[in-house]
Amino acid sequence: MGSAVDGPRQWVPRSGRNVARGARVARSPGAPGLQECSALLSSPNVEVAVAPEGVRGGHGYAGPVPVDKVLLAAPRGFCAGVEMAIKALAWMVRAFEPPVYCYHEIVHNQQVVDRFRDLGVVFVDDIAEVPEGRPIMLSAHGSAPEVVAAARARGSHVVNAVCPLVTKVHHEVKVRSGKGYRIVYVGHEGHEEAVGTMAVAPEAIDLVESVADVDSLPDTDQPVALLAQTTLSHRDWAAVAERTAERFPGLWRPGRSDLCFATTNRQSALAEIASRCDAVVVIGSANSSNTRALEKLAHGSGCARVYRINAADELPDDLTGTVGVTAGASAPEELVDAVIARLAPVEGVEEVRITDEDEYFPPPRELRDLLSGVDVLATFGFGGSVPDRPEVNDRQLRASDVLAMLA
């Protein structure tokens, strides 16, 4: 990640639309970190609002809702793991005749899922639903070992698009359980990532979500390790981690936090602007845990009006003043552009960037092998020189641009 630099610069929507006058970006070297975000999130009686039913839906026309100004949080939107997973599934769609199957939603965003479904991708919750011989992609959230094995036994080609940060936690579970540790895993029950992680060593792991859950754990003579779902907010994790350390002296923790850096960055960026806003709009789906953490954080900052929306036409039509905008890690940038276009800020857009993110996760190994083979065959078939062919430059492709091309 790059360091913050001073001074405004022109902000341009990735879609190319000229949505606001005087758009600029301000970088904030004093942006709040984990502890400040945790304090904002820990306010009692935090409640989350969603757009009223009359303005929800995501598909119909909705006119402008002119406001004074938009404060745009950065970083926002796609993280490196989501970028990798979306591009990987897009490559699968291009490489195979439909249908391509995907175990669970590739990421937690309904627009992304619908875009791929329109292209012939079939999302399943049970590998047994996949006909033998059909290509299968495993989602970014990580899958249980038995699911991976079943997919490989059934599919003609299996691509595991698990986020590398989740793979790290799976590895930690395997190593710690193998050394005789009892594992306390902080996560959300039923979330795909938590389900897949716990399945690595189900006999050695306990899921907790709260301090009360930690207090209810039985005493043990085993050494205890603490691990976490990567998409948790610091608020979800901190108090539970502290209580676990009190209950189990000598608690083992990984040298590097399990919490996703992108999740933390998006929370810190929102915390920087939320107190300056009359309303905050969080773009993302209801089943995205990092999106829900963002809306809770906005409420904890004292902002009177907070809305989680899926699309621009879900904006309430009575917004005024300064509106903060951010997006969860699974939300495409085109949704941000559309929201700002509908808000039509009279005084323009100020993008407040607390840091740069330059992390890149390459395509899954199984896909790299496939793409290399397809590239060689295509070059040879068109009479080109295989040794001199240009390499596929996945790093320079943005997932939002790939989605736009697929539309």
Write the layout of secondary structure elements.
Blueprint: E1 24-27, H1 34-41, E2 69-74, H2 80-95, E3 100-103, H3 110-118, E4 121-124, E5 136-138, H4 145-154, E6 158-160, H5 164-178, E7 182-186, H6 192-198, E8 205-208, H7 211-215, E9 224-228, H8 234-247, H9 261-274, E10 279-283, H10 289-300, E11 305-309, E12 322-327, H11 333-343, E13 349-353, H12 365-381, H13 399-406
Parallel strand pairs: 1-13, 2-12, 2-13, 3-4, 3-5, 5-6, 7-8, 7-9, 10-11, 10-12
Helix pairs in contact: 1-8, 1-9, 1-10, 2-13, 5-6, 9-10
Q: How would you describe what is shown here?
A:
The longest helix is centred in the last third of the chain and has 17 residues. Helix content is 36%, strand content 14%. By secondary structure, it is α/β, with parallel strands linked by helices. Helix 1 packs across helix 9 and helix 9 packs parallel to helix 10. Strands 1-13-2-12-10-11 form a 6-stranded parallel sheet, with helices on both faces. The chain contains 13 helices and 13 strands. Among the domains are: 149 residues, 3-Layer(aba) Sandwich (Cobalt-precorrin-4 Transmethylase, domain 1), CATH 3.40.1010; 84 residues, 3-Layer(aba) Sandwich (Cobalt-precorrin-4 Transmethylase, domain 1), CATH 3.40.1010. The N terminus is likely disordered.
Tags for this entry?
single chain, 407 residues, Cobalt-precorrin-4 Transmethylase, domain 1, 6-stranded parallel sheet, 4-stranded parallel sheet, 13 helices, 14% strand
